[in-house]
Specification:
single chain, about 350 residues, alpha/beta, Rossmann fold, seven-stranded parallel sheet, three-stranded mixed sheet, 11 helices, about 35% helix, globular
C-alpha cells in the first residue's frame, strides 16, 4: 500500500498504537514529534510489536508553532490527529491545556486542507458529548457538552473547545478534505512506553497501592488497541465522513477494576487497594483540595452513554473491560511503570 498517513504526537499512548495498526495494514506512516531525539525510542517501542518499521518516518512539529506542519502533511492521504496536551493542572493553568488543544488542532487542519489531505480523523473525548449530570440524558453523538459545566476539568474543557473549533473550521474552510472525530472513554490497555500515559496512570497507581482508599468513581473503558483500530476504520469508511463516533466498552467502578486486578495479577496485585473512601468525606474535602475538586461532581455517578453508532456503522466491537485493565497492569509491571518494577 503506497498511501501515507500522518499521525500527530508520536510519543503518545494512543498515537503509538495507531501507528502499529496502520503499519500492520500496510500503510506508510509519518509521525510528528516535538523533539526528534525521541524518534529512536518511539521506533524501538513500535518495532517490538509490529513489522514494517521501515515504513515509519518522523517530522518535527509542535502544536504551538506553525513551523513544520506544512512539511509534515505533504504527500499524506490521511491524517490521524491524536496529539493533545496532558499537562498543566498541577499549576492550575487551564490555558496550558486549552490553547495547545484548540490552536494546535487548527494548525493541523489548516495544513491538511492546504495539502489536499483526503480525510482527517481527530481524537476527541467522550466527555465532549456528555450532557449535564442530573439531566438523565444519554451521552451520544448528537450531544455537545457545555465547557462551563462544573463537572469538567481543564483537560476535558480543552477537548470540548478543540472539537467545537475543529468542526466550525472544517464546515467553513474544509474544502474537499473530509473530517471525522472519535470520542473515547477512559483509555487503558497495554503500554508501549511509560511516557505520556494519560489515563493509564490510574491503573499504575492502583497496582502501586494508590490511593489507599478508593473513591466511588467509574469509567467507560476502551482498550487502546480497539481505539486504534477504530481510528483506522474511520479513516477510510465512506459512512464515517462528517461524523462523530463515541468509543467505549464496559463501565467499571474503581472498586471493580481493583478487584479484577487483585484476582488476576496474583502476587503482583497484592498492593491494590480494596477499601472505599467515604463519598461524604471526599465531598467535604473537595473545596479545599485541588486534586479532589474535579472529582466531586462525578462521585457515585454512572452516567449513561451509548457507543451504538460506532458499533453499527464501523463494526466497533470492544473487548471486555476486565481483559483491558489486566493487560494494562501487566504491561506496566513489566515496563516498571507502576513505581514497583518486576525484579
Amino acid at each position: 500500500m503506497n498511501e501515507t498517513v500522518l499521525v500527530t504526537g508520536g510519543t503518545g499512548f494512543v498515537a503509538r498504537w495507531c501507528i502499529v495498526a496502520l503499519l500492520k495494514r500496510g500503510y506508510t506512516v509519518r509521525t510528528t514529534l516535538r523533539d526528534l531525539a525521541k524518534a529512536g525510542a518511539v521506533r524501538r517501542s513500535i518495532a517490538a510489536v509490529s513489522d514494517g518499521i521501515d515504513r515509519l518516518t518522523f517530522a518535527k512539529a509542535d502544536l504551538m508553532n506553525d513551523d513544520g506542519w506544512g512539511e509534515a502533511v505533504t504527500g499524506c492521504a490521511y491524517v490521524l490527529h491524536v496529539a493533545s496536551p496532558l499537562g498543566g493542572v498541577a499549576s492550575g493553568d487551564r490555558d496550558a491545556y486549552i490553547r495547545p488543544a484548540r490552536e494546535g488542532t487548527l494548525r493541523v487542519l489548516r495544513a491538511s486542507v492546504e495539502a489536499g489531505v483526503r480525510r482527517v480523523v481527530m481524537t476527541s473525548a467522550a466527555a465532549t458529548a456528555r450532557p449535564p449530570l442530573k439531566s438523565g440524558l444519554v451521552s451520544d453523538e448528537t450531544r455537545w457538552a457545555d465547557p462551563d459545566d462544573p463537572q469538567f476539568d481543564a483537560y476535558r474543557v480543552s477537548k470540548i473547545l478543540a472539537e467545537r473549533a475543529a468542526w466550525k473550521f472544517m464546515e467553513s474552510e474544509g474544502r474537499a478534505t473530509e473530517f471525522t472525530t472519535v470520542l473515547p472513554g477512559a483509555v487503558f490497555g497495554p503500554v508501549l512506553s511509560t511516557e505520556n500515559l494519560g489515563s493509564v496512570k490510574i491503573i499504575g497507581d492502583l497496582v502501586a497501592g494508590r490511593p489507599r482508599r478508593l473513591p466511588r468513581l467509574g469509567f467507560w473503558v476502551v482498550d487502546v488497541r480497539d481505539l486504534a483500530d477504530l481510528h483506522v476504520t474511520a479513516m477510510t469508511a465512506p459512512a464515517a465522513a462528517g461524523e462523530r463516533f463515541i468509543a467505549a466498552g464496559d463501565f467499571m467502578w474503581m472498586e471493580e477494576i481493583a478487584a479484577t486486578l487483585r484476582a488476576k495479577l496474583g502476587a503482583e496485585g497484592h498492593k491494590v487497594p480494596t477499601r472505599r473512601l467515604p463519598t461524604a468525606l471526599v465531598r467535604l474535602l473537595a473545596p479545599l483540595r485541588s486534586d479532589l475538586k474535579p472529582l466531586a461532581p462525578l462521585l457515585g455517578r454512572q452516567f449513561p452513554l451509548s457507543s451504538e453508532k460506532a458499533r453499527r456503522v464501523l463494526g466497533f466491537a470492544p473487548r471486555p473491560g476486565r481483559n483491558t485493565v489486566v493487560d494494562c497492569a501487566a504491561s506496566l509491571i513489566g515496563a516498571g511503570g507502576t513505581g514497583s518494577p518486576r525484579a
